[in-house]
Amino acid sequence: MSLTLLRSGEDVSGFGIGNFGDMRLAKTGALLFKRLFEKLTICIKSLGENRATEVAFSRFLSNEEVEPKLISEELAKKANEACVGKSHVLCLQDTVQLTYPSQSTKKENFGPTGDADTYGLFVHPGVLVDASNRDVLGVSSVITWCRPEGGKALKKSRPIEEKESIRWIDTALLAKKNISNAEMITVVGDRESDFLEIFERVPDSRTNLIVRASHDRILETEEKISELLDSTVVSGEHTIKLPKITGKRKARPATLAIKYTPITLRNPEGEGIKIYCVHAMEISAVPSGETPISWILLTTHLVASLKGAIQVLIWYTWRWIIEQIFRTMKNKGLKLEDSQVEHPKKLEILSILCVATAIKVMSLVESRNGKNNRSAIDLFTKDELILFALICKKLEGKTEKQKNPYKKDSLSWASWIIARLGGWNGYASESPPGPIVMLRGLQNFEFQYEGWCLAK
After folding, report:
1. Mean per-residue pLDDT for 86-115?
2. Which percentage of the chain shows pLDDT scores above 90?
3. Between 303 and which of 99, 308, 383, 416 could a Cys-Cys bridge form, CB atoms 3.0 to 4.6 Å apart?
């Protein structure tokens, strides 16, 4: 159904984030998401454009009926629609910590974080990616919370349901529940998700796990994982591109020696849990001061060949997509931590919408090399595509190397234009445009689009 907010006359079809029991709230929420999606800023004043709409957005964020969970569920429905016909999707999950140094009342309203006396909140999304081509499809859920005072000091012996770690299981279970259109789901997590309960509760006939090991567990054979790997022969090698981590490592190619073996995790309360272990150890030269990577990946996928082990490794490396989404949300991107909104619930709502908006940016990043067949209409309107064509003529040079190499109106074609607007020079020999370049390009395009609309 088409929703039109009469206050502005804008068609907000496709931007619904829930009805909240009131059509006026539904329209206001849809307009807020549309403006955020287009303007790529979290400043309520800028999003409102006028005083009346700014007040409407503030009241929407404060309304008791507007719950972060409801917005997450609505975004998951959209993602499920994007999964129609998909044989296999990955659910990449991780946590980002958001701190708001400008908040004068942060000690009253927010909770402690992992940084000493810094207060803020946490956001934990499940980002869906097509397992065949890396297309970013949406979110299966977004969990947000503020940590209670003293939460960091609570005993580790508590049941998993009373720990923050339950978010890893909850996100996996929500992916199973909310994403029914994909034939198979693989939930991918980093070392924080390495605990026995996730292997007990999540896997089924259509749901698999890839978890990077954090513990050198004792197996049913009474030997440790490391001891078993020591006696496992190397099956082959594979080279990956390691991305840069500021302050820790430079981007570099890394050649990895690959081992794989079946293992059985010891379960004190029942039968052992049979899974597979893939070990990837860097054997190529490592820059001075940096540590060679050594990943032990635990998976419920059958790994019976080197090809299968490499596929598990590749899927794990795609976790970098969610790291890039977090980067896009923060200082160099949407600048969510600069928000002047002072109430945690409002910021939880904005953070969920920021995740969805950052996914738009990452969709462009993943389309930059023409590897998928997505249409630009997935992210842009017909009017915007008309302006894209006009801008493209201006950006293209005389030589073939300076022309947009992709099919007109494809998402790759639009990605090339946006990257050029963001400062990329257009040459394939240069570093490919990342999320911050795409974000700048989208913001530049929005300014031009507004001027174009006024001129029309």
Report:
1. 80
2. 61
3. 308
